[in-house]
């Protein structure tokens, strides 16, 4: 499978995702992940080439649903997602597309 652009990787499958930058990662754009919070333990958020702080409302919304969120660069998020998925962990990922991952 090949895809251009940002992705949401959820238990239901891989879905195109609108954000193109860390600034566009909001509680609204993460609503599909929050909707399946009962099916995941960890949500990795790839914020592009760099990392940035997530708004408090995002952290609190996922904490209330007992989901650990980790916001890191997209390359690291992809690698960590693959490892956790390979271990059979309940993991999801929200990945802002990058030209070249490190």
UniProtKB/TrEMBL annotation:
<dbReference type="Pfam" id="PF04430">
    <property type="entry name" value="DUF498"/>
</dbReference>
<protein>
    <recommendedName>
        <fullName>Mth938-like domain-containing protein</fullName>
    </recommendedName>
</protein>
<dbReference type="InterPro" id="IPR036748">
    <property type="entry name" value="MTH938-like_sf"/>
</dbReference>
<dbReference type="InterPro" id="IPR007523">
    <property type="entry name" value="NDUFAF3/AAMDC"/>
</dbReference>
